[in-house]
């Protein structure tokens, strides 16, 4: 088995019954003041039914992390995963 690291998912494309997920990795910048940039490091291609099953698993894990107090969610928009934040970190996305 090969393991791959990614900082985030950049794009998900559905074409028919095929899902393509682009994974992004942070790039190093020669200028410390420059905004963080990401580039596609690899792509996962899978059938739509497998993708939908994996979403169910991710939703269960997200709910457990919230219940355990590991992440917090803005109650106004708690339906989106983008609102979930690690409890110990202050992060922002542009």
Q: Order of SSEs, N→C? A: EEEHEE
Estimate the global geometry from the Cα principal axes.
flat
Instruction: Give the strand order, joined by hyphens, for the main sheet.
Output: 1-2-3
- Domain unit count: 1
Please report the number of helical segments. Answer: 1
Sheet with the most strands, sense and barrel status: 3 strands, antiparallel
Over all CA atoms, what is the radius of gyration?
16 Å
User: What is the typical, i.e. mean, pLDDT?
Assistant: 83
Ends distance: 34 Å
**What helical percentage do the residues reach?**
10-25%
Low-confidence stretches: 88-94
Strand content: 35-45%
Number of strands: 5
Helix-and-strand structural type: alpha+beta
List keywords for this structure.
single chain; 37% strand; three-stranded antiparallel beta sheet; 94 residues; 5 strands
Q: What can you tell me about this protein's structure?
A:
- The radius of gyration is 16 Å and the shape is flat.
- The protein has a 3-stranded antiparallel β-sheet with strand order 1-2-3.
- Mean pLDDT is 83; it is low at 88-94.
- It is of the alpha+beta class and 94 residues long.
- It has one helix at residues 48-67, and strands at residues 8-15, 18-27, 37-47, 71-73, 84-86.
